[in-house]
Amino acid sequence: MRGKLLQQDLVAGLAVVAAAAFAWWLARKLPGGAGGGMGPGTLPKGLAVLLGLLGALLAASSFLEREGLRLRRWSLRGPLFILGALVVFGLAVRPLGLSVAGPLAIVVAAFASDEVRWGETLVFGVLMTAFCIGLFKFGLGLPIPLAPWLLGY
Amino acid sequence: MEFLANLSLGFATALSPMNVFLAFVGCFVGTMVGVLPGVGPIATIAMLMPLTLKVDPTGALIMLAGIYYGAQYGGSTTAILLNIPGEVTAVVTALDGHEMAKKGQAGAALGIAALGSFFAGTVATLIIAAIGAPLTRLALLFGPAEYFGLMVFGLGLAIVLARGSVLKAVIMVVLGLLLSTVGTDLETGQDRLTLGIGELSDGVDFAVLAMGVFGIAEILRNLENPESRSGAIAQIGRLLPTREELRRCFGPILRATGIGSVLGILPGNGAVLGPFASYAVEKKLARDPSRFGKGAIEGVAGPESANNAGAQTSFIPLLTLGIPPNAVMALMVGAMTIHGLIPGPQVMTKHPTLFWGMIASMWIGNLFLLIINLPLIGLWVRLLKVPYRLMFTTILVFCAIGIYSINNNPYDVYFTAFFGLAGYVFIKLGLEPAPMLLGFVLGRLMEEKLRQALALSEGSFMTFVERPVAAGLLVLAGAVMLIAVLPAVSRSREKAFQE
Amino acid sequence: MKRVLSLLVLSLVSGIAAAQPYPSRPVTIIVPFAAGGPTDIIARISGEYFSKALGQQFVVENVAGAGGTTGITRGAQAKPDGYTIMMGHMGTHGAAPALYANLKYDPAKDFTPIGLVAGTPILIVARKDFPAANLKEFIAKVKDPAAKVKQAHAGVGSVSFTTCTLLTSQLGAKSIVAAYRGTGPALNDLVGGQVDYMCDQIVNLVEQVKGGSIRAYAIATPQRSPALPDVPTTKEAGLPGYQVSAWNALFAPKGLPKEIHARLNDTLVKALDDDATRKRLLELGSVIPERAGRSPEALQKLVESEVARWNPILKPFAQQ
């Protein structure tokens, strides 16, 4: 039974049903059901119902398959640091500017891989940021903040 | 023949040393910027538009057009090499293109993309020159009901696109449709599914979605599985397609040019469907459809050609009616207006040198793309030899900057992270992102056209039956979906019988 | 010791920066709409003059979203040091309070008005075969429920939406309304004859009218536009109460120092007298305000009167 629980299709199907339920819940107050004419809520609700049905179908189909794909290992490290790096960049870019957000994001992202060598990454980070600054700020004239805390822009 | 006279006027203008130079600069800069992950054609044109302000109007437009094609091709390059599609049309290229890159055939993929685009561009230019104006009148017959039919047809194509199970593809399409409803409602201005987050009231941005679900997820996947990485890419191998491959791609390129050209003329972004339609057609026509999704070169040749053909012909509504068919063209309108040249029905008659000069330089631009990009293929492939542990941080930062620069809004970067997580979950659950992206793009258009059609018919669904083109397209859509679903149904019935 | 030194350096640097005359580095003009639209074009044209006159680059930053309110919110929250200004318009500083219940700024209180830049007159246009020879007949048709006249607009919150809503509310008429995502698709269906009429800024429509693919019934300004001299004004054609123009103006966040404020307004006044700038603005069909109308006080009055005007008309459409 445990093996069954870890089947890809089953988990996928259930996840889809959950997503559909969430969407339906978000759209619950919008006017417009299938009966009363089209409104802003018709399509979101209709699609949520459809999605839920399909998800259920997928989950059910996993019981018909004797040889289904099993769920593979999920890792925490990669997503945490890569997504973390993006979030850090977003938080830092306006108050601290590209000059800080760039290297910071690179350093955080580097934690995601165990192949990373620190000296190399730091040097690379600074060089990359300098290149980006040259390209995006001076070459293309993008209004991206450089170092508001130092230069004011 | 007026047609030849016009073309020669056009070439005379376009071949002036200044204009040739501008076309080259436009193509080059456009390609370089378009290659940056996260920076799609719209962002590229918006960024580079100020550069064109220093030149005369004709020259500026030629340069802008060059930037446009360059950005498109640069975007395809990123799609093939890094699996990051910067624009809707690059999504299909990424499917088989990236698979080819993983097998060490990046050079062939990039090469056929360049060659196919050039051919399609040439043909499309001729079409524009010969029958552009009368064709627009045909396109005006397309009202909201007809567009709705076309979009539903497109949805059917999305299902054919699937690599694996049809059920999962349909689920992803529906998910994409659902995502497209996030934002303010068109008719009432109410917020839908936005969780109260103000930044979502304009909906999810395509670039953010594509970047997260394709690009970021790809980075996550590569970090986990060093073996499945594009290690083979490091082998330079062939830089161009073989003769055999060229032969195989001839048919697809031809068909794709036709499909892309026709769809591109429809004002209202019909060009989006071109690559998807071409992919679906080639997959159905191929002797061994199972190759598609695993690196079939026809799966790159067709869509890229359709893409470029559509990109060219989408200038037609702009130049003949003065109405931009999509966001990129709207930028072009803005650029033209800044130069004092407001596009409209009279441009062709009042500014013939500009009009025909632009068309001629479109072809020249295509030529430059070929000349610029074929040698660059070697460079890109060599760049991929950089060890992944250094590359992935660079790609990430470029993506972050690119996404931020779309709207100068950090929230876009946060959403990209969220979609990156979603993409990772999809990979683990065996769900494919491509149909979802198509569903997302089509969803907005579809709902808009549906609501408009119903508003104009005062709520009557009969409008879809009464209008012949709309009805025809819906029937076609139904047929496509049946064709997509039937093999799967019969397969599962066989299995059931076997047990 | 190190701390004291670094503090010294920092204050020296910022002191130098502050002591230098304004502007000593590039200035950002926030345009709350996507690049290429009428407001963006006007901002870029005027920005060019400012760059030349003041010796520093005036760079446009497009921050689009929520009918322009996202960009304006960001501008309102910026430091009032003169290095971030914004291009607001009738929508963001007139109609927004009525349409958006959760608006994060008050157009009349949270800004330092610099001055009006240009207004884009509104045209009432219809598909070319519409069965009405002039504005009076058009109005009759629109008011007649049996005629089932169809209106197109570019989305709730857009100029075409607010101005057409004003029209129908003044006429006391109800049209069948179709919402589009942007001016392009709406105009497309107008040209194609799928819808009957639209109200939009002259910039978007001038070439179509000249080319004959759509017809214009009236322009909602006191004088005829030199770009379309054959189109009568609403006053001439029989609807004098319909006067509206999508005005565009420069604002700075509240609390701008007086000298910088004076400098910016002064440059703006000169920009609107400059031949090259005038020519490009007029080509678009814009209306350039007279000298008297270019003062910050005039702008403030305009904002207040616009907010008051749009409130009753647009409240029924307010977003939750």
If you had to describe this structure to a student in words, what would you say it looks like?
- The complex is a heterotrimer of chains A (153), B (499) and C (320).
- Chain A has 153 residues and is mainly α.
- Chain A has 6 helices and no strands.
- Chain B has one domain.
- Chain B has helices at residues 2-14, 17-35, 41-52, 57-82, 88-102, 106-139, 144-160, 166-180, 206-224, 243-265, 273-285, 298-313, 315-321, 327-338, 347-350, 352-383, 388-407, 410-429, 433-456, 463-466, 468-498; strands at residues 183-184, 191-192.
- In chain B, helix 5 (88-102) packs antiparallel against helix 12 (298-313) and helix 5 packs antiparallel against helix 19 (433-456).
- The relative contact order of chain B is 0.18.
- Chain C folds into 2 domains: 27-119 and 246-317, D-Maltodextrin-Binding Protein, domain 2 (3-Layer(aba) Sandwich); 121-237, Periplasmic binding protein-like II (D-Maltodextrin-Binding Protein, domain 2, 3-Layer(aba) Sandwich), CATH 3.40.190.
- In chain C, strand 5 (150-153), helix 6 and strand 6 (176-179) form a beta-alpha-beta unit.
- Helices cover 44% and strands 19% of the residues of chain C.
- In chain C, helix 4 runs parallel beside helix 12.
- With 320 residues, chain C is of the alpha/beta class.
- Chain C has 12 helices and 9 strands.
- The mean pLDDT of chain C is 87.
- Chain C is elongated.
- Classes of the chains: A mainly alpha (153), B mainly alpha (499), C alpha/beta (320).
- Chains B and C meet through helix 14 and helix 19 of B and helix 2, strand 6, helix 7 and helix 8 of C.
Count of discrete alpha- or pi-helical segments spanning 4 or more residues of chain A: 6
What share of residues of chain A is helical?
55-70%
Strand arrangement across the biggest beta sheet of chain B: 1-2
Number of E-state strands of chain A: 0
H-E order of chain B: HHHHHHHHEEHHHHHHHHHHHHH
Portion of residues in helices of chain B?
A: over 70%
Counting copies of identical and different chains, the oligomeric state is heterotrimer
Distance between the termini of chain A: 60 Å
Q: What is the string of SSEs of chain A from the N terminus onward?
A: HHHHHH
Structural class of chain A: mainly alpha
| Main β sheet profile of chain A | none
Given as residue ranges, the uncertain stretches of chain A (5+ residues, pLDDT < 50) are none
**C-alpha-based Rg of chain A, rounded:** 24 Å
